[in-house]
């Protein structure tokens, strides 16, 4: 039987230098449950290092946590990568790390990049330059995500910076995104006016939360059998009545 599950598939943690320090695994899980979410995805900039801790923090609560990343392409396009298995996300992270801009994070300039455990204890500081672009093109990122069995979503395509539309002017033919994301800044009516040429893609909308108070601010409903990565993938394909609802 199909049922509606609420998802927020774009949430940053304290590993993202631009996110607040309070975006820790157990806090994110607590607020996600409070907001009635069934599925969340952890999508830090160019890193997956706090995803497993958040999955562990959610253990036994019923909240499903997907491991993901928000990868910046060489064209400065933000692409969300979601995975069903943390091991696959780690393989993608290896590629991203090998193609990051060399250098260290300047904490004074960009902010802290905290690696934490499921009890919100700091276990390390990521020194990499996570906030900048990788040397990977949007095409190669989407290909690599698919190679590792993940889903690729064009990030906040309505934004005037860091989106496929802002950076390239359009979504190139043959760039096989699994879905497009709209930011909380745009409503469905306006999105349909501006992006009607991309209606063949499934559309999702998420909070892109950098602050605890933003979690669940925007959600997407998935009409699926159960709240899993594979059911989300099936909903993107419209398999056997499954649907993606964002209104
Ligand atoms: Zn972004
Ligand atoms: Zn983001």
Please summarize what this structure is.
The protein is α/β, with parallel strands linked by helices and 247 residues long.
Relative helix content: 25-40%
Order of helices and strands: EHEHEEHHEEHEHEHEEHE
What is the CATH topology assignment? TIM Barrel
Overall pLDDT, averaged? 97
Bound molecules: zinc ion
Strand order in space, largest sheet: 9-8-7-4-3-2-1-10-11
- Number of helical regions: 8
| Quaternary structure | single chain
- Count of individual beta strands: 11
Number of domains: 1
| Cα Rg | 17 Å
The description of the largest β-sheet is: 9 strands, mixed
Q: What amount of the residues lies in strands?
A: 15-25%
Describe this structure in words.
By secondary structure, the chain is α/β, with parallel strands linked by helices. The protein has one domain: TIM Barrel (Alpha-Beta Barrel). The protein is built from 8 helices and 11 strands. The chain has helices spanning 25-34, 51-57, 86-98, 107-110, 138-147, 164-168, 188-194, 229-236; strands at residues 3-11, 39-45, 64-72, 78-83, 114-116, 122-125, 151-154, 179-182, 203-205, 220-224, 243-245. The strands form 2 sheets. It has a 9-stranded mixed sheet with strand order 9-8-7-4-3-2-1-10-11, sandwiched between helices. Strands 5-6 form a two-stranded antiparallel ribbon. Strand 3 and strand 4 (78-83) form a beta hairpin. The structure holds zinc ion (2 copies). Residues 10, 12, 70, 208 line the site of one zinc ion.
């Amino acid at each position: 039987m199909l049922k509606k599950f609420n998802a927020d598939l774009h949430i940053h943690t304290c590993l993202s230098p631009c996110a607040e320090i309070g975006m820790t695994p157990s806090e994110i899980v607590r607020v996600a449950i409070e907001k009635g979410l069934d599925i969340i995805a952890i999508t830090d900039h160019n890193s997956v290092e706090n995803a497993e801790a958040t999955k562990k923090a959610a253990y036994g609560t019923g909240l499903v946590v997907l491991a993901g990343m928000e990868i910046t392409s060489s064209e400065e396009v933000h692409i969300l990568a979601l995975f069903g298995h943390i091991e696959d996300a780690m393989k993608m992270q290896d590629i991203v790390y090998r193609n990051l801009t060399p250098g260290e994070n300047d904490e004074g300039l960009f902010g802290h990049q905290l690696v934490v455990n499921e009890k919100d204890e700091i276990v390390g500081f990521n020194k990499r330059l996570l906030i900048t672009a990788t040397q990977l093109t949007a095409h190669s990122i989407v290909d690599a995500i698919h190679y590792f069995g993940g889903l690729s979503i064009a990030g906040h395509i309505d934004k005037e910076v860091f989106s496929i539309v802002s950076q390239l002017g359009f979504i190139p033919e043959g760039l096989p995104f699994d879905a497009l994301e709209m930011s909380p800044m745009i409503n469905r009516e306006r999105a349909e006016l501006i992006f009607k040429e991309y209606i063949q893609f499934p559309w999702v909308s998420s909070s892109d939360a950098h602050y605890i108070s933003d979690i669940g601010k925007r959600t997407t409903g998935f009409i699926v059998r159960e709240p899993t990565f594979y059911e989300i993938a099936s909903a993107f394909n419209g398999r056997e009545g499954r649907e993606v609802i964002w209104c």
